[in-house]
């Protein structure tokens, strides 16, 4: 670990205060706070039962990681490329032009879902992509390995996370308006580190 990151983690640990996260949950929360310098995320992050284990197992199996936007992809591809080697793809990059009334991210995420229904889906920017994915998942026979629902903003963001919360799929989500690409990448990277540590154990 880089000395600056080590020092940052030590500061986070000292300021964190009491919490009830498991060690694996805390490893993710700590990276999210490190990426954002925002301790409110410890109140906003939600883990469904078994979500972390499902994500780690999927990463170790080499399943693809599908991101909504290029920024999330850029945030995870270096670490995953140097370690586990899973394919990482950005939904928006697959669609040069969206059909009328649709966004490129929602169109791209549905294309990815058709190809890789059991992938890890990491949504850090586009609530339209999360809503479109949730609509498919509500009737899907194959659940994804994990959905990370952390779009940021004001329009449809809270609603998309509430829809995800109603689904019985493995999920890590950020409640409310906060989230974003750096936070989503931090969650994926924390899972990669946990997967590597498990491999060493």
Note the topology.
Layout: H1 3-16, H2 23-36, H3 41-44, E1 45-47, H4 51-61, E2 65-67, H5 70-82, E3 88-90, H6 104-115, E4 120-123, H7 127-137, E5 146-149, H8 157-165, E6 171-174, H9 181-200
Parallel strand pairs: 2-3, 2-4, 4-5, 5-6
Antiparallel strand pairs: 1-6
Q: In a nutshell, what does this entry contain?
A:
With 201 residues, this protein is an alpha/beta fold. It has helices at residues 3-16, 23-36, 41-44, 51-61, 70-82, 104-115, 127-137, 157-165, 181-200, and strands at 45-47, 65-67, 88-90, 120-123, 146-149, 171-174. It has a 6-stranded mixed beta sheet with strand order 1-6-5-4-2-3, sandwiched between helices.
Structural summary, described in words:
There is one protein chain. The protein is an alpha/beta fold and 201 residues long. It has a single domain, classed as 3-Layer(aba) Sandwich (Rossmann fold). Helix content is 54%, strand content 10%. The chain is built from 9 helices and 6 strands, in the order αααβαβαβαβαβαβα. The chain has helices spanning 3-16, 23-36, 41-44, 51-61, 70-82, 104-115, 127-137, 157-165, 181-200, and strands at 45-47, 65-67, 88-90, 120-123, 146-149, 171-174. The chain has a 6-stranded mixed β-sheet, with helices on both faces. Helix 5 (70-82) packs parallel to helix 9 (181-200) and helix 7 (127-137) runs parallel beside helix 8. The longest helix has 20 residues, at 181-200. The chain starts with a helix and ends with a helix. The mean pLDDT is 96.
């Amino acid at each position: 670990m880089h000395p600056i990151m080590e020092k940052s983690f030590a500061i986070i640990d000292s300021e964190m205060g009491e919490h009830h996260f498991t060690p694996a949950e805390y490893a993710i929360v700590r990276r999210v706070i490190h990426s954002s310098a925002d301790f409110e995320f410890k109140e906003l992050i939600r883990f469904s039962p078994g979500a972390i284990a499902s994500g780690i197992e999927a990463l170790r199996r080499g399943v693809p990681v599908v991101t909504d936007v290029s920024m999330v992809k850029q945030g995870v591809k270096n670490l995953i490329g140097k370690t586990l080697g899973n394919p990482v793809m950005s939904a928006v990059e697959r669609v040069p032009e969206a059909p009328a009334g649709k966004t490129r991210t929602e169109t791209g995420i549905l294309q990815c879902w058709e190809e890789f229904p059991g992938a890890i889906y990491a949504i850090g920017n586009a609530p339209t992509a999360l809503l479109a994915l949730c609509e498919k998942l509500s009737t899907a026979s194959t659940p994804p390995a994990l959905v990370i629902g952390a779009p940021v903003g004001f329009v449809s963001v809270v609603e998309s996370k509430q829809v995800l919360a109603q689904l019985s799929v493995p999920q890590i989500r950020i409640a409310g308006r906060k989230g974003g690409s750096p936070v989503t990448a931090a969650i994926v990277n924390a899972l990669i580190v946990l997967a590597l540590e498990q491999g060493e154990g």
